[in-house]
Amino acid sequence: MDRQALIRRLESIIGPRGVITERNQLRTYECDGLANYRVIPSVVVLPETAEQAQGAVRACHQAGVPFVARGSGTGLSGGALPVSDGVLIVLARMRRILEVDLDNQRALVEPGVLNLQVTKAVAGDGFYYAPDPSSQQVCSIGGNVAENSGGAHCLKYGFTTNHVTGLEVVLPDGELVHLGGGKAPDPPGYDLLGAFVGSEGTLGIATKVTLRLLRKPEAVRTLMAAFDGTDQAGDAVSSIIGAGIVPAAIEMMDALAMEAAEAAVHVHYPEEAGAVLIVELDGPQAEVEHQFDEVERLCREAGSTTIQIAADDDQRALFWKGRKSAFAAVGRISPDYYVQDGVIPRTALPEVLRRISRLADERGLRVANVFHAGDGNLHPLVLFDGEVEGQERRAEELAAEILYTCLDHGGSITGEHGVGFDKKQHLPRQFSAEDLDAMQLVRCAFDPEGRSNPGKVFPTPRLCGERPGPRQAHPAEQAGLAEVF
Amino acid sequence: MGVQDLEREGLVRPADGAFEVDGVPAGLVARPGSVEEASQVLRAAAQDGLAVAFQGGGSKLGLGNPPERVDLLVSTAGLDQVLEHAAGDLVVRVQAGARLADLQAALAPAGQWLALDPPEPRATVGGVVAANASGPRRLRYGTVRDLIIGITVVLADGTVAHAGGKVVKNVAGYDLAKLFCGSLGTLGMVVEATFRLHPLPAAASAVTLQLETAEEAGEAVRLLGRSPLEPSAIELTWSGPGLPARLTVPFEGIRPGADAQAAAAAELLGRVGEAAVLGPGETEFALAQLGVLPFEKAEVVVKVAYPPAELPAVLADLRAGPLLGQVRAHAGTGVLWVASGFRDVRSLATAIGRARERLAARGGSLVVVKAPPELKRAVDAWGPAGDALGLMRRVKERFDPDRRMSPGRFVGGI
Hints:
The complex is a heterodimer. Chain A is of the alpha+beta class.
């Protein structure tokens, strides 16, 4: 089917107002939150119902055309980067909350619903949706499902995968299936829901999502503790965890990150502080009060110079605003920056931070560190000036070196931003060829023709027609013509 | 190398009629002592086209449908090591054959535990993963899928593959660990797993509520769900129709928190019936009671999953017919276990079919977890697996194209 025929077909399914074909309009969708990579898609469609989304996927399947799903486009790994000969399916118009069932603590929503919108819909009844990525005001639930999004509070509450209990999914051939139990637990069969969440759009498109709602905790207490340096702040984190306390969140920012956030939102971080921790406890009143006193004591013992306790919700919101706006705020102190996302065992924190600082010095670059300290998820921000010859390349090298440092310590190349397009060449550093082949078995079961978000996650696609079996080198590889990254 | 070669090496031996899976005798048995040996065994079985099943503690061998054949039964008993306990990171890496109880004992000195409390005393880590075993505290901590962060498996052709890792937060690659949770040996052999851990609660305080009707039970669960209380479990114990029932609600954590919550819960549940905070000794006894399912003697046990708010309606559904006997429910999560008396196959099979229809309309399911062979022949242990069954078959075909991994045990004959 040629492009014009496919466009006519898509228009008949979605209506002309939901199909974009003009090059200038298509440009709006050329990248997601990671603007380093840009590809103009062949066609963009904006379905308003699951049936329309299914129709679009089926049309792609019949035309032999690849497709990419996109929510709000806030992803930071190029996971929603279009393919030039493919259709970009934008779910942003599927924005209805279909059902709220408080007695079963579930909400059924469409994929374009914004993360924060869910909490807003149930807050009046004392409930909320736990995963809270920093972009929660604008990111969509469908995107959260694709990326298995985390957030500051996943230390205690887990990730998207722990809060999605059911999905309606359009498979790459257009078939509609239901995964997970929805309101009832333990459905018989394989946990395909678990395999789908976090598969970065490579297994199909979620068109309805059942979310777990939590009762708002009785008490929330938040403190911000300043330290001379990240070592002392790291010690405080270790002693809090060592005391058997599981805070809702423990976040750390270093001096450079604080400088940036201060310029943007005026949190009034203590001057001369080398690191600051935000520790939040929530839960039953009596437990929180008791443990909060202990956290305060442990911070002082670890050498905290000043401790501020949020007096009310406004002050708590200010502490968090500084933290959540830190990425964007770095733009105020550097013309360009590269956001990295890596994970280490939390106990390796001091060592890894020293190594990052050494690597940065070697390249004459600065790195601002913002991280979810409780679970070892680092977000080093590599600052550079694209106008200065060679700096961008050195920044990219440094960002990659930081990931390898994470892997050297038994960590991961991504804790929440995903592999996407950006990190696929690094994935074989974390997993063997056998591991990746095993993962591709799942891909082949869902998407044997490799049409759903092709070119993401895996560095080399597997031909699904092959009989599954022991891995054999590709002929080009054997001939020495290609290497496996 | 074929299986005969491994027999000469002593890695595989005849079962001599001493081993079976759900009534199906095994031809050969193997007890690999390392991941490499497990890989060797499965590679040899692939070469010889043998059907393979797996055994951990043996407590779930009766789960699912009887396998079509078991040419080789591979035990994880030789893989019983706790490989790495990173206490500061709240993470443990352990081999599949390690007993859960032994693992908990190894973690306890650091004040930590793997927050899974399935009732089977012999359960192994690999068995808990493969059978998706859970207990009362799943209300607070979730099930094994929520706690597993890394896995090592041996696939049908002997390939050793990993997914996840040893950090709690990790979105690199597909989450194969979850796919293997509850797969009952039909995709391959789980040989190692890595879990996130939780601090052991320092104190517990429990509340009990005496119940006259199923409606009262429903109301109590609803009140708890709407309150900010954070019980670690909400357990319903009911000896059967016409008899009184009891709700047990433990709160675990630090002393001041557990006590304050129990007091608040007793007041809240007092609106429904006679509620009381248990004394320390009684709490300990009640918690120990929750740790076992009192169904040792029952011939037929079914597991019913349902939306938790529909507890009274589900109990009413089950009441019709001979299905309903002694009941234990994880009432906050919507899982109930029923011990049925066994009279005749036909009436029980009919009752199961009817209950499944009603549960399906509620989005729930009924799995026969224990039954005599004649009942197993009459009903499918799993019931319908929904519109994703075709996709499940395609996953199975990719992982096990020759259909040799526990053939026939899983949903839809997988």
